[in-house]
Amino acid sequence: MRIVLTALTAISCLLLLACQRQPAPAAAPLAIVALNDPANPYRGQYADWDAWIIANLDPHSSQMPGATVRQGEAALFVNIDEHGCLIPYELHARRERTGMQRGIVSAGYGSTRLLAQGPISDELQARLSAMLAGISAEGYPEIPDWLMQEPPEAAMFMPNGDVLCRLPAAESKYPDPELEGRDGVMIWQRHAADGELLGWTSGHWLELYVGSAGMPEGQLSSIPGAMLEVRALSGSGFRLLDYDGTELDPLNPPQRNLKFGNEMSRSALEFTYEGQRAGGME
């Protein structure tokens, strides 16, 4: 249950932080349309957590209460559309996730935000948490079990199946005499899909593929899909490189999962891993 509660708390915090930046709605309470009303366009799309939301909705509130949520309770911001219909919470969560990925503060699409808070059963909270974790995990490559035995500070997944792990040199299982006594040094480790160590570097992760002698001159910027933009230190020219240093045509880059090359923190790894397992990914 600890993992379930952690997952629910994590995504709820993300949603709540986004919500708190929104202007307060009108003071007058909304007239909420029943979930089974024939005029409700979302009728048939609701789950039992939506029924819980309606039962615990405060039509006057758009701010989190000052008191800490008590054990056995949940507190969620939800969206009510312009007609007074609750936007199904799964749809709401997907919109929020998409908005955050695009750098949008909130993906409420003009709807009113209200607070639902109250007691919730462990069983319902577990299923709600699993749904949210599953949404968070969508699109990411499968996170292997070996990686989560001792999660690194951060990790990236590459198109060829490699896993790159970022961690303090002191935490590495593969100590190197060159790094002894250098506290605070961060390194990248390159692992094959089965966990085999293929190399490490205290420099840019691209060195794991091209070596220090093969590093390009210029300013490196990561591009979604495990690609790198190399900008000249002077002038306006740039080159596009693949994760392994291969030169790419900037006008015709490879079409691949944009989650490749996305650096995931330890907490994001843990949350996504649980979401993938909850969704049946083995």
What does this structure look like?
The chain is of the alpha+beta class and 282 residues long. The chain contains seven helices and twelve strands. It has helices at 2-19, 48-55, 89-101, 122-137, 145-149, 207-210, 266-278; strands spanning 57-58, 73-80, 112-119, 154-157, 163-168, 186-191, 197-201, 219-223, 227-231, 238-242, 247-248, 264-265. A five-stranded antiparallel beta sheet has the order 7-6-5-4-12. Strands 8-9-10-11 form a four-stranded antiparallel beta sheet, with no helix packed on it. Strand 9 and strand 10 (238-242) form a beta hairpin. The longest helix has 18 residues, at 2-19. The chain is elongated, with a radius of gyration of 23 Å. The protein starts with a helix and ends with a helix.
Features:
282 residues, alpha+beta, 5-stranded antiparallel β-sheet, 4-stranded antiparallel β-sheet, 7 helices, 12 strands, disordered N terminus
